[in-house]
Every structure is written in structure tokens, then in C-alpha cells.
Amino acid sequence: MVNKNVLRKFSNKELETYLQEGNRFVPEAVQIAFEILEERGCIFSEQEKTAVQQLIRHKKEEEEAKLSEEREFWKDHITEDANAIKLFPRELILLISGIFGTIPGALLLGLNFIKLKKYGAAILTFIFGAIFLPVQNFLVPLTYKENTQGFFTYRKSPGFFMAAVGTLILLVFWVLFTPKKLPYRAASYIFPVILSIIMLVMIINYPEWFSGYFLVSFAR
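-> C-alpha cells emitted (220 positions)
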């Protein structure tokens, strides 16, 4: 948000730099600078006014293109195209990771990378999934221990927070290592479901192994 009162403190010469082609100011700042100069009695020819409006329009188009590119960068390009490669869906991976931890989520994502022949990314993902478990198991109980009130609400649970962090990191891995705008079909849900059931059984029977997990933390 551009503050007009701040720009009013600038000299005419400083404000004129906002109207120069190739400047890095946002379109709103250019518009306000132009209005202030007119208020101060500066006279612009019709050609100059047209040039300023074209500059503002061009800057707005650049901003819209940049936002569109950023949205495309994070977009999930799942499709029904029969010719597209089959991958485990991104939303499914993130959901499983959030509920059952980074191990199953990293395993599914790593298998996707192997299908895409991104072997380095797959190894990195597998390692992260394994390493995040002891980190989570260390930080979550420590947070509970240091908490003076000894109580956490659902949203403020450190287990929930760490699960969200792990899931977010896997999302970043997906975006960084999956080819941009790659259309893919959803692979069978059978293996992810089986993997989730196995993780649930392990969490229930060996909660000490997963002391930092969201399900264990929430059950306290």
C-alpha cells in the first residue's frame, strides 16, 4: 500500500523519477506521484500524460503476469489425460504426511520422483522423511516440558505445528523437483491407504517411537 503523505514530502525532481520509463516503482506509486505533481501546478502535455498512463498500464500488466506465474508455479497439474504419467496425488501426500507423519509422505513423494527419474530428489526426500522423525520426537516433548501451563489447545499443539512444518517442507520439495506444469494422472490409492494403515497400527502399538507425532500429542 503506497502512502500518499510520504510521497508528498518528496521534491518535484524526486517525484519525476517515478514517471521515468524503466523505474522499479509500483503502478500505484507512479499514479500518486503524477497526481501530486499536477496538484503542485506541473503542466504535462497530452503526449506526456499518455506516456504516464501507458507506463502505469504496463506496470499493472507486469504485476498480473508475475502473480499468474507464481500461481502457476504452485498449482497442482492433475489431469484425466490417459497419456499423462501416473503419480501419487499431491493433496493425498500432504494429507497423509499431516496425519501420519513425514515418513509415509516422504516415501510416496520419493516414489514419484523415482518415476520422474529424479533420483537425487528421491534420495533427499527419503532422508528428510527419516531425519524429521527424531527431530519431531525431540522438539515436541521438549515444548510440552517447557510449557508452564502444561496445556495446549488443538491449534496450538506443538505436535500439530511440527506436522504442518513437515508437510510444508514436502510441498516445497514437490514444487522444486517436479517439472513445472507437468500434467499427471492420479496413481492408485491402494498403496497409500495400506501405508497409512500400517503407520496407524505402528503409532498405536509403539507410541514411544512417535512421541512427537500429531496423533500421539493430541491424545495426551
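Residues 46-74 form the longest helix (29 residues).
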